[in-house]
Amino acid sequence: MSEKFMSFDEAVLILKKELNYPEDRALHFVKRFDHNGDGQLSSAEFSLFKSRIEETKVQLVPKFKEYDTDGNGYITLEEASKILRSAPFNFPPDKVLILLKRFDKDGNGMLDIEEFAGFYAEAKATNDDIAARFEKLDKDGNGVLSPDEVITVLKDLLGFDDQMARYLIDMFDTNNDGSLDKSEFMQLWAGMFGQ
Q1: For 114, what's the count of Cα atoms within 13 Å in the CB-facing half-sphere?
Q2: Global pTM exceeds 0.90
Q3: Predicted local distance difference test score (pLDDT) of residue 2
Q4: Tell me: the pLDDT tens digits for 104-136?
Q5: Do the Cβ atoms of 46 and 12 come closer than 8 Å?
Q6: Which residues have C-beta within 8 Å of that of residue 187, sequence separation ≥ 6?
Q7: What span, in angstroms and rounded, lies between the C-alpha atoms of 77 and 79?
Q8: Positive or negative, the Cα torsion across 45, 49, 22, 110?
Q9: Which is nearest to 186 in space by CA: 88, 104, 63?
């Protein structure tokens, strides 16, 4: 019994139907599963392709639809900004632009679902990393970092003296309460370490 193969066109149709992929991006995605480069998907290649579709549908599609507010199959710059500037991310505006440009592979100023997968994974990983750092520094668990908690980090990691550390805290303390909440800490961290 001979092995069955699927053409790229057939696989593209599946992606368009099941994940609403734009056609040009669908073909690019399908080609990544053609491991032997024969221009079609073998049974094994198709099995990997299909499992990736199912994984994407379960994990990513609900998020994509939530953020694709106009339902056009793309996350626009405006929609991406809303994602990252609100909870749980609270990213500074320059970080939003950096992420969008990094993952907007075709340069059209929008993210299709494949680009969104990378964008969202990076945003979540960055947020999780900064949140973990924040929680580790927030010794008393009150949700804000006192100047002493922040000064210790700035001195240890960057070698700042007390005066420079206090200056930075004042600069990023946008609500002027004398402490840094998670959003303010994220902006300081992104400013200092480029994350």
Answers
A1: 19
A2: no
A3: 59
A4: 888 888 888 878 877 777 777 777 777 777 888
A5: no
A6: 92, 172, 174
A7: 6
A8: negative
A9: 88
Fold classified for 138-193? Recoverin; domain 1 (1.10.238)
Write out the H or E segment, with its range, that includes residue 106: none
Q: Which residues are within 8 A (CB) of 130 and not within 5 positions of it... i.e. 6 or more apart? A: 182, 185, 186, 189, 195
Specify the fold of 63-129. Answer: Recoverin; domain 1 (1.10.238)
The 3-state DSSP class for residue 60 equals coil
Angstrom CA distances, 63 to 27, 49, 69, 79, 169, stand at 23, 21, 11, 12, 34
Q: Is the pLDDT of residue 188 over 70?
A: yes
Element (H, E) at 21: none
3-state secondary structure of 126: helix
CA gap 87, 166 in Å, rounded: 27
Q: Where in the chain is the domain with CATH 1.10.238.10?
A: 63-129, 138-193
